[in-house]
Design goal:
Layout (H helix, E strand, L loop, with lengths): L1 H9 L36 E4 L2 H10 L15 E4 L3 E2 L21 E10 L2 E7 L3 E3 L2 E4 L4 E19 L3 E4 L2 E4 L18 E16 L3 E4 L10 E3 L2 E11 L5 E4 L2 E3 L5 E3 L2 E2 L2 E5 L8 E4 L2 E4 L2 E3 L2 E2 L3 E5 L4 E2 L1 E2 L2 E4 L5 E2 L5 E3 L7 E2 L1 E4 L4 E7 L2 E7 L8 E2 L11 E4 L1 H4 L2 H9 L1 H10 L2 H5 L3
Parallel strand pairs: 1-2, 2-4, 3-4, 4-8, 5-8, 6-9, 7-10, 8-11, 9-12, 11-13, 11-14, 12-15, 13-17, 14-18, 14-19, 15-20, 16-21, 17-22, 18-23, 19-24, 20-26, 21-27, 22-30, 23-31, 24-32, 31-35
Antiparallel strand pairs: 25-34, 28-29, 32-33
């Protein structure tokens, strides 16, 4: 059945308004490009091919710390995969030494449909904030597209109290979209762009009283991140032990900021997020996203999802999303957040497996006290006390069997004109079309 799900996803009509020149297929003669090397000229406009593991590792090491000056961020540089690459040994993420926002990868990485397999990352003693994946963190002008990542195995353990740890098979973290001249951001703000990527494998993140994120694609997607036409099949586990901080897990991303977009995406794996000592928000997990302030269109998920906490009035587990916030919405006459801006709804055309299993684990200290199944299966989590949540997400429950039928592909494709119209109303296409 898994192959059937994937074949349906691959035949979808792409959301063309999310595929401007900046994301569309290149016609460059990649074979004629120079191979990337450690001494490559990374001036704006440069282009290189990467055809070997040696070249890929050279690129990963070349994106490095520069006190925020961005000398090595590869802004304006395009890298093309020239073939499949099977990694050997452990992987050091692209830009792993960078800590300032301006030093993270800021160029374009085009996989051209090729595959990087065998991504292995094991960090057993993180003592400061750590982000891991193929990339550590993506800068706000970064574009990653047409890339497949298979058989990844990522394990990240934070050993210091309160530090944050994030892992995604593609990237651990992202940078907020740039602010406008006014200093603010809005619905047309676009930062990191990820299109036509896939990822399979496992991600396990554990922290000691620090927030943690585990995701199939991107650990944390900040303000204005746009993820389109992507799918994952990964086993995800995020645990924050010994304290009250939250844990996030999601098939596409663990957590989004305002004005982000998740469109035409699917997740087939499982998600688990737990903070056993937390009596507040605890674990937050969803088939697509753990905690979301994003616009979410034409997504679907089929996997089981579980969260854990120390006893709370929130149930942040859902087949699609753990918690959905009300950012950008208005209240109706009853005081509930059901009113979207005039441009249109934030979350339409989404589907989930009604026969997926959702569970909530409740702990007493570090001991599991009980496990309850959420019935019926719901698309997003809920709270008995918190009212500042989105009450208006539209989604449809289906059986896994129906989601594997040919008719479902037609349903997804049929949604695209409406989604394009909403995205255009929010000026997403205008910003994404800029070079």
């Amino acid at each position: 059945m898994k192959k059937r799900f994937l074949s349906l996803l691959l035949v979808l009509v792409l959301i063309m308004s999310l595929m401007p020149a900046a994301l569309a297929a290149d016609t460059v003669d990649v074979a004629a490009l120079p191979e990337y090397a450690a001494d490559a000229d990374i001036s704006t406009g440069a282009a290189y091919k990467i055809s070997t593991e040696e070249s890929l590792r050279a690129f990963a090491a070349a994106v490095k710390a520069d006190d925020g000056n961005g000398t090595y961020a590869h802004a304006g540089v395009t890298l093309y995969l020239a073939g499949d690459i099977a990694l050997t040994g452990t992987w050091t993420p692209v830009g792993s030494t960078a800590t300032y926002v301006g030093d993270f990868f800021a160029g374009t990485f085009d996989g051209r449909g090729h595959t990087v397999s065998g991504l292995k990352i094991r960090v057993a003693d993180a003592a400061s904030e750590t982000n891991v994946g193929l990339f550590s963190t993506l800068g706000n002008t970064a574009v990653v597209k047409n890339l497949n990542l298979t058989d990844a195995v990522i394990t990240l353990t934070g050993v210091a109290d309160t530090i944050q740890c994030r892992a995604g098979i593609l990237a651990g973290d992202t940078v907020n979209a740039a602010a406008k001249d006014s200093g603010s951001r809005s619905h047309d703000s676009i930062g990191v762009r990820i299109d036509s990527c896939s990822a399979t494998g496992s991600v396990n993140v554990t922290g000691q009283n620090g927030m943690v994120w585990a995701a199939g694609l991107v650990g944390r997607s900040q303000i204005g991140v746009c993820i389109t036409n992507c799918w994952t099949d990964a086993a995800l586990r995020a645990e924050s032990l010994g304290g009250t901080k939250s844990a996030y897990a999601g098939g596409i991303t663990g957590h989004t900021g305002n004005y982000a977009v998740l469109a035409n995406c699917a997740a087939f794996g499982t998600a688990y997020a737990s903070s056993p000592m937390s009596t507040n928000f605890g674990g937050q997990a969803g088939g697509i996203v753990g905690m979301s302030a994003a616009k979410q269109y034409n997504t679907y998920a089929v996997g089981d999802v579980t969260v854990g906490n120390g006893g709370t009035k929130h149930t942040w587990v859902g087949a699609l999303a753990g918690e959905i916030t009300s950012s950008g919405m208005s209240k109706d006459s009853s005081g509930s957040y059901t009113v979207y801006p005039e441009q249109g709804a934030f979350r339409i055309g989404n589907y989930f497996a009604g026969d997926a299993v959702l569970k909530v684990e409740t702990y007493d200290g570090d001991m599991l006290k009980e496990t309850k199944t959420v019935e019926p299966t719901v698309d997003r989590g809920f709270s008995s006390t918190l009212k500042s949540v989105d009450m208006a997400m539209t989604s449809v429950a289906m059986t896994k069997a129906d989601m594997a039928a040919a008719a479902f592909a037609g349903t997804l494709s049929g949604n695209i004109p409406e989604i394009n119209a909403v995205l255009a109303a929010y000026d997403k296409t205008k910003e994404m079309g800029k070079g």
